[in-house]
Design goal:
The protein has 567 residues and is an alpha/beta fold. Helix content is 28%, strand content 17%. It has an 8-stranded parallel barrel with strand order 1-2-5-9-10-11-12-13. A 5-stranded antiparallel sheet has the order 14-15-16-21-18. It is globular, with a radius of gyration of 24 Å. Bound molecules: alpha-D-glucopyranose and calcium ion.
Amino acid sequence: MERKWWHEKTAYQIYPKSFMDGNGDGIGDLKGITQKLDYLKGLGIGIVWISPIYRSPFVDQGYDISDYYGVDPVFGTMEDMDELLAEAKKRDIRIVMDLVVNHCSDRHEWFQKALKDPFGKYGDYFYIKEGKNGKPPCNWRSYFGGSVWERLPGYENLFYLHMFAKEQPDLNWENPELRQEIYRMIRWWLEKGIAGFRLDAIINIKKDLRFQDFPADRDDGLCAPAVMVRHAKGVHDFLREMKREAFAPYQAFTIGELFDFRPEEMELYIGKNGCFESIFDFSPHVLGGGEKGWYDRKPVTPDAFRNAVYESKRMSQSIGMMANIIENHDEPRGASRYLPEAGRNETGKKMLAGISLMTIGLPFLYQGQEIGMTNKRFRSIEEVDDINTLDEYQVTLGQGFDEAEALQIVAEMSRDNARTPMQWSSDLYAGFSKAVPWLRENDNYREINVAEQEGRADSVLSFYKKLIALRTDPVYTEAVVYGEQIPVLEEETNFIGFYRKGAEKTLLVLANYRKEKREVTISQAIKKVIIDNCEDRDCREHLIAKTGEGSRISMEGYQFLVVEVGN
Ligand code: GLC
Ligand code: CA
């Protein structure tokens, strides 16, 4: 694998509305981010991805862009953006923006012009199609529920396509003029000095142009959008062109958000000939996904989690580096989702941190993960902002669940769990703002917050710092960043174990993913314990005993260890 500047970094995602409010209006903003750059630096962060800060009506919280060249006033001004870039540069932090080009907002000037003249130039920037006798052209379901087709106002039999909300019309990538507009915009931002982009819903830019029905998979008569994605051929032509025309001249860092791609096509996405530098590894996140909706989800077991991670690394590690996440702005909090009740404590959270950071890949933290923020308790559906959650609530009610049950079901998966204000301190509004936050903070901010954890050596935050520092520790970089990942002790259940084999050193990573203790035996001698999430606590009962050539290790429940072993 060819080495890249970003391989040894640790990245961090900021959800700007909820990170830090710099001007006291209850909404996070660019000035707030600039204020916290030292915090990020102290954590060891080298790359920051900021979710959209462009002009937007916020139907989908900024993923509906009405002007790609403008900063939305709630976040500040272009001067604030320039200041952020300059301050980040001083601290050797690279800024990555969100690139949302599968769709724009229905308020974007292109769409407004298309509405006025669907058969003119801008009509062809979108997918505007004739229906079948006043009915939509085909039966695809949008990601946020209902048909992907919306009737064009003023026309009986014309529809436009939206894979997400109806306020997010899809851009017609078949149109070369549109593509050039997008590349121009990308170059404009790169010219400004950003390091690159996270590419939103990027696999969706290619449609199955037959626009045909597929077999319905729910009683709404529609079929999942993923089915269309699987049938759409040729996305790589667009991606290659975009790379050539927009990213390559700037050596931009690009990271794709890709669902439903064919794993055997990994080489098309990452590595030497890939269209992107990296892609997120969503393999644990898609587990248990309900076919019919969130109500139909299955819990994710530790073994399923492990097998998914093993498998995606087996497929990818010789090709290129994927990015590891536990959570992001579209997922519930990892600590609530992946830890069984008994492990929902600092020990368990550190174990999850360890798994994510020691697994081969670029670690991507999501704001608040580093202090172990958890899902929030929703008091009522009125409290929910997220468009996706509101749709799933309706789907759940439609299945005969009552309101309380439906709320409980969607609360577990709601994207709002990740979007509550960052918990900086135990001050009012979690130290995020002086005003009432746009989304109510999690009740537990008095216990879980940065200020409390910063001064404490055994906090989750301190543990993250330790893990992050290991990536750039000259002694361990080779193993931690580049070392081959080889699973071990696969016959154990509720357990994760793997080697990271560097040129000179071999590390062994062990996670006892259950509350009961366990003993494992490995064939090498242990030279040194490098990371231990039970180190500073009373539970330091684990012992490492020599057994002939090898070692026997006794582990506490949810204990996580990184040890150096003989080669
Ligand atoms: C991506 C974003 C998500 C958004 C969707 C539509 O999945 O991460 O937040 O709703 O795309 O832009
Ligand atoms: Ca603000």
